[in-house]
Design a protein that fits this description.
With 440 residues, this protein is α/β, with parallel strands linked by helices. It folds into two domains: 233 residues, 3-Layer(bba) Sandwich (FAD/NAD(P)-binding domain), CATH 3.50.50; 149 residues, FAD/NAD(P)-binding domain (3-Layer(bba) Sandwich), CATH 3.50.50.60. It contains ten helices and 24 strands. It has a five-stranded parallel β-sheet, covered by helices on one side. β8 and β9 form a beta hairpin. The structure holds flavin-adenine dinucleotide. Flavin-adenine dinucleotide binds next to α3, α4, α9 and β23.
Length: 440
Amino acid sequence: MTRRHDIPATRRAFLGLAGGAAALGLAGGAPARAAKVATRARIVILGAGAAGTALANRLAERLEGAQITLLDGRAEHWYQPGFTLIAAGLKPASYSVSRTSDWLPASASLIAEAAAEIDPEAKVVTTASGTRVPYDFLVVATGLTLDWDAIEGFSLDLVGKDGIGAVYAGPDYAAKTWAEMDRFTDSGGRAVFFRPATEMKCAGAPLKYAFLTEDYATRKGTRGKVDITYFAQSKSLFGVPIVAEKVRMLFEERGIGTEYSHVMKAIDPGRKIITFTDADGLEHETDYDFTNVIPPMRAPEVVRNSPLPWSGKWEGEGWVEVDPQTLRHNRYPEVFAVGDVAGVPKGKTAASVKWQVPVVEDRIVAQLAGQEGTEVYDGYTSCPLITRIGRAMLIEFDYHNNLVPSFPGLIAPLEELWISWLMKEVALKATYNAMLRGKA
Ligand SMILES: Cc1cc2nc3c(=O)[nH]c(=O)nc-3n(C[C@H](O)[C@H](O)[C@H](O)COP(=O)(O)OP(=O)(O)OC[C@H]3O[C@@H](n4cnc5c(N)ncnc54)[C@H](O)[C@@H]3O)c2cc1C
């Protein structure tokens, strides 16, 4: 599956070429599979988001008699790639919300509680109410935590007031962010955008929102009274150098100012001031009329407090120590991590989840069948980088920063195209849903 020459066709299916035709094709059914593997194994999956749900559905298809248990305290499933569209006024908050339980296979059970403790020596997870759940295989799929408390002066109550937005915080907050952006692009002033210095999910999203704000102001005829600055946390605007350079050029063309090596530290909503720290530790204040607050991101506390994270790597962030190719834990072979919580150098997107889940499925099923799994994850990461309403760049890359376009010769990754926009705006949700069902 991850051999290079196999990649384009299957990715094409995920991305849903031409407005979702392939996505609809996918919804018609999964490819024929080998006979199910009989087992009594207890497989516990922490988190029923994109990764946990997709994996549960795929394992249910492959295994006969397994006890698949998911833990998740949130009754709502959030389609997070939709948050940007909500915050751009293109979709209502309900666009991203469904019920977690609606996506799960009938043969799996859901414990509607968060995991509070993981003991990989005893092979037991304890839930928030104290129930002990023993496992033979554990898959950590908790996604990540948004550390709002790390920003001095900030609280989520501020979102939707006096120019403060927070697209990442959830569907309702994304809708409130849109109301603020709409108001700001009418009245004008100074917009300040940034990203955290930690690893983050969909690192393109902060850039997209700067582009979208600029586009709205231009469309409304208010661009002349709008000043926009993007503060990058490092010396570069994006982790993949060729993409960073393209974004730099587009920002320059569109009159979006840039500052480098600035990490957001505090906000003072009364004075409308944001404080950044630079590479020398010096603090700089800047005023704002509109901003999209994006906090540091870490593994959830239950993971950070367990023996599972890397030591000496991503200190304070707590990503699970897994082999980048197999996603199997380096020290606890019956533990895997998939999705945003996995401690791998790329891959915090839903599109990455699509490529990670079959690897974990293969490794577990093969082991239960007395064989060796063969699938590997190559770091595939993709985020349609919206540059205007109706235009996006379909950026896809791997662990080595190679661009790995799904449609070579057809869709140029570094061009702002309508077809790439369609994939984000129309096709991605259908294919994401197919992925949740284990069909993509
Ligand atoms: C604004 C924004 C835009 C994005 N745009 C794109 C895009 O265009 N393309 C793209 O591919 N990706 C995009 N993404 C990223 C994508 O949504 C995530 O990478 C993806 O959802 C990761 O899946 P996951 O299963 O790891 O985490 P999630 O989908 O977040 O699921 C994690 C689940 O774990 C649960 N959980 C948390 N803690 C615990 C616990 N202690 N015990 C049990 N359960 C727990 C949560 O309740 C949640 O249900 C975007 C994300 C955001 C926020």
